[in-house]
Design brief:
With about 140 residues, the protein is α+β, with helices and mostly antiparallel strands. It is built from three helices and eight strands, in the order E-E-H-H-E-E-H-E-E-E-E. The strands form three sheets. Strands 3-4-5-6 form a four-stranded mixed β-sheet. It is globular and about 35 Å long.
Length: about 140
């Protein structure tokens, strides 16, 4: 089964861009969880060589995922709130997840939970996650 994953690249001027990757994955009952876990794990060597990187903290865990009425509800561990790249890193990790999740035909937007709780803001920099995010949020 082919899944679209979105990683980030850092440009020569220091700006960050999304990069779409198609990766062959084993067919499973939870392809959305598989895709998000692949983002957390990061790019494979060939993807890394093309400049791809994941801005999601490597200690982050996806606790649960469900889809209801077009909204993916993704529950992450507390490490999701911390990003070594600051506010740009937080925005980048949200973009990676939203674009990857909305590549599935049943997902229009993503509601983020941290340790099972809906938060208004992500991280100390305060990136808004109080309502579901979609591709137009970025």
């Amino acid at each position: 089964m082919k899944l679209k994953l979105y990683f980030m690249t850092i440009n020569s001027d220091g700006s960050v861009s999304r990069k779409e990757i198609t990766r062959e994955m084993k067919k499973s009952d939870s392809p959305l969880m598989d895709a998000i876990n692949a983002l957390i794990k990061g790019p494979v060597a060939s993807e890394e060589n093309s400049g791809c990187r994941s801005l999601i903290s490597e200690n982050t865990k996806l606790i649960g995922a469900s889809v209801k009425n077009g909204t993916a509800i993704l529950n992450f561990s507390g490490d999701f709130e911390f990003n070594q790249y600051g506010i740009e890193g937080l925005r980048g990790q949200l973009q990676q997840i939203v674009f990857t999740a909305t590549a599935f035909p049943t997902v229009e937007n993503v509601q983020f939970l941290v340790d099972g709780e809906k938060k208004e803001y992500l991280g100390s920099e305060g990136v808004w996650i109080g309502t579901p995010l979609n591709r137009n949020s970025f």
